Amino acid sequence: MGDEPVMATNDDASECKRGAVQLGYWQDSYISSFVRHIEKRAPEINRGYFARVKGMERFIQKFLSKAGSLAQIVNFGAGYDTLYWRLKEEGIHISNYVEIDFPNVTSNKCYMIKRNKELLQIIHDQDGEIKFSSTDLHAGNYHCIGVDMRNLALLETKLQQAEVNYSSPTLFLAECVLVYIENDCVNRLLQWIASKFKTALFVNYEMCNINDTFGDVMLGNLRARGCNLAGISSCKNVETQKERFQLNGWLGTKAWDMVQIYYNLPACERQRIEKIEFLDEQELLIQLFQHYCICIGWLGEEFQEVNFEEC
Ligand code: SAM
């Protein structure tokens, strides 16, 4: 069936995020520029997305506070993620921001950016030209590039076109992406990063603890939609998620399941969002959280102390 079902997971994630934003779970002024369609999701799905977005955000903040204005971000399988525009809105300066996805996805994203004055103005607030091709966009410090991440040689060329600086402290993000990629390819990618970058933090949001009935149902749904879960064996548990970094030349790694992440978010924020929708089955939400995790890996001592709990 090819990669189309995997690309379609971006529509699903973006629609879920748009729906949760609309209900007030968190703020994102830009998601509606990429997603028009809103479908009502179950409250546990909205809470799950809230934990995912807030969990990722926490690590992004930690990275930025250590890396300062030299910070560079590479967002793998970015889909219609709006982080670049949200950081700009907050007045956070970074040196370079690169989004990567399949060319079909980036061409849609580039097209939507081109047609949207507000998005365009934000990426083009410095002098210099905007370079477009059908799948790529380069403007100032924003780059959206279309490439299959499994093709490491082409990825490297495209990252050079995106002016990636191997000596800048770099944050790599992957939110529900690596599960669709063969382990060999992920291993090669992680090894390549470890050989090129001195200082980096990789933040990976992914499934875990999949070997139970709940896991079977989750995976069954994705497989029924035609998704090839090529990297699923790394999602066995948080230990197998960490092994990826341990075995591929990273200095260190840590992981938390989403139960830990959710209950470490500020209590006032949790109380606020728990009032948005009534949740009948608390148990279902906990099960969902038990099946996702955030795993980080780092290169360079600077990020050794990055922790979730100490916020
Ligand atoms: N990270 C975004 C988010 O959380 O909203 C999108 C997540 S979506 C579940 C997975 C994304 O990974 C899709 O946009 C898909 O096209 C992308 N992806 C999966 N495998 C890829 C590959 N080999 N190369 C490039 N992108 C890939």
From TrEMBL:
Its EC number is 2.1.1.233. Keywords: Methyltransferase, S-adenosyl-L-methionine, Transferase. It catalyses: [phosphatase 2A protein]-C-terminal L-leucine + S-adenosyl-L-methionine = [phosphatase 2A protein]-C-terminal L-leucine methyl ester + S-adenosyl-L-homocysteine. SUPFAM superfamilies: S-adenosyl-L-methionine-dependent methyltransferases. Methylates the carboxyl group of the C-terminal leucine residue of protein phosphatase 2A catalytic subunits to form alpha-leucine ester residues. GO terms for biological process: methylation; regulation of signal transduction. S-adenosyl-L-methionine binds at R52, G77, E175. It comes from the Eukaryota. The keyword Glycoprotein does not apply. Belongs to the methyltransferase superfamily. LCMT family. This is Leucine carboxyl methyltransferase 1.
